[in-house]
Every structure is written in structure tokens, then in C-alpha cells.
Amino acid sequence: MKSLPKNNVVKTILVISDLHLSAGLNVNNRKNFLEDFHYDKELIEFIEYHSSGHYLDREVELIINGDFFDLLAVPFVKYFDDEFWSENAALDKLKMILEAHGGVLDALKDFLSYPNNRIVYIIGNHDAEFVFESLRDFLINSFNELDRQKFRILLNDETVYIPEEGIVLKHGHEYELAHHFSVNSCIATDINHNKYFIPPWGSYYVTRVINKFKEGRDYINAVRPVNKFIINGMIYDTLYTFRFIFANFYYFMMVRFVMIFKQNVKLSDVFERVKNDIQLFQNYESLTEEFVTSDENIKAFIVGHTHDPIFREYDDGSIFINTGTWTKMYNLDFGKNFNGAKLTFARIDVKDKTTEKFTKEEIDKIGRFDHLEISLNEWRGRTDLPFKEFR
Fold first, then answer.
1. CATH topology (fold) of 9-198+288-389
2. Average pLDDT of 385-391?
């Protein structure tokens, strides 16, 4: 079978997720212990690189697959308790993040100024407050007027995004009940017409448990797998780990178990809901393998959310990718023993199947997805080889 030419790329799709830009290293002259993103320079170079050189001769689609802005991790704001979830609070938090990472916003503006470039933003669970139209409008209006139509924000509710036939994307929080929310029912309005986001209980957990313990141990949410983190913590940091375990148990019992009983739910339903609730940081490969391999229309399924970079190709040729994160992670598994940040991203090069080098009969013989080159890469900065394949 004849193959497509190596350099006949007409479109490049880039997928990043879970960068978690917060309000900067300092907020109101106080250290921001919730800021997890420290790679503005590298991200700016990544954006600039893909809007220069031979990329100018092709379409480039940058997909931000959720949790780019971390609206759950903005401290020292004037909003407390339920006011933290108000539309006004969400807008103020977004403004603080954009101000703290102005260079990134400028790079995105410059990227979008090129005629063949576009950006798609899929919301996740840490930036779920983009369900407010005012936040979407504010972000879009930050771009030049002529380029705004090339920037899309997708409220990904029970749906997927397909940038090219065979390529399917979700952020991934949809698979965990703790982080699941419905776009159609997550906004409440009070008698004064003020709007509030109704977060999933996982978002409450982040703001009321994780954020508090991060002040003492900034790695508290960055260690995988969780069970080995607990075992090591009980040995080497016993008191703090015990407090963390107790806070988790107490919060879960009060917010989920007790509240469920107050709703007069059947006991069998209680245990089923609790079982679903505690499936945090589970194996996404086992959750998604059937979804990928059972549908011949899917070549690659790309998610984020768990911060664990994965490239897996199944026997039928279908591919599962988790794009990982651009924040520091610490993995205690022997097979994944790394510390620090892996600036990983998915890349899909789309080749032109209609080239004059092929007859119609030859094009028909080419495999349905042979024109797609799919990889998970690690950004290494602007060098002669600025990225390498992540395996």
C-alpha cells in the first residue's frame, strides 16, 4: 500500500491541558502558596514556536483541554464562603490570573493574529466557572476584535470535541462523580438576580481541604499514586498525614454521607453513590479502553485531568492519550518514578490525502486514518529539537 509523503502536512493540532495558572507567586504582598504554574517562559516559547517557521504554511489549532486557569486556587480574595462561588468573585479571580500571567495572554494574542491559527478552549473542573457568560466574554474580548471569531470556548457537557475525523477529546473530569457538573443546572440566581456557580463536591473539597493543607505541604496534591503517598506520609510525616487523612474522612462523611441521608435516599442508593464518589484518580485506561476500541470511528481518544502523561496504543491500532500537566508532580511508582514537571502535549499532524502524487484508486487504498500522525511529546524549549516524543 502506498503511504502518504512525510512532509505533506496541511494541519497541526496541539493539545495541552491542566496548566493550572493561578494568581501569581504573590497576591496582595503575600506569598501565594496555591500557585502551581511556574513555566510562563516555556509556555510562551511553545506558543511562539508553533506560529513561526514552517507552521506559517499550515493550519495550526491549539486545543486547551481544561484546567488552564485554576479558579479554585486564587487566595486572599474578598469573597468568603458561598460568595466565593458568585459570578462577581469568578470574574475577579479571572482578572487576577490574567494580570499575573500577562505574558502568556500576549503570546496567545500573537498566536491568534496569524490567519491560519485558531484556539479551542474546553472547560474542565478547575475552570468550570466559565459557565458564566460574563467570564467567557471577558476572556474573548481580551483578544483583538478581528481574531475573536477564531477563539472558541466549549462548555463540554456530556459531549466530546472532534477537531478531525477520528480524534476525540474530553477533559476527563466527566468520569468522576466528585467533579461532574451539568452546564444546564449549575447556576443559581438569588432574589437580587446575582448568579452563583453550584460546584460539584470535589470543588468544595479542593477549596476547603486541599488548599488548606497546601499551605503546610505544597506537594499535597502532586503525589501519585495516592495510596503510596499516604503510606510514605504515615512513615515520614506522621502527624501531618494523619491530620490530612482525618480531614478527608470527616469532610467526606459530612458532605456526602450525612447529606445523602438527610435527603431520604434509600440505603442501597447511598452505598452506590458513595462507591462512585470515592473513585478518585482511578485508572483512566481501564475506564476508556472499551470506549476507544469498540468504536471504529475513533482513532485516538485524548483526555487530561489526572495529570498522568500516558500514550497507549491498543492491538487494533487505536490510541489513548492523557496529556498530563505542566505542573510539578512526584510519582512513587517504580515504573513512573519521576520528580518535577513534564511539559507534555499531544500533537496530531494531518496530511493531505488529495495530493497530485496519488490517483483516486490509490487514495481509496490508503487507510482511513493513515493521514494522521499522532504523538505525545515533551516540550524542551527552543533548541534545534525543541520537543521529544514522550513514551
1. Purple Acid Phosphatase; chain A, domain 2 (3.60.21)
2. 67
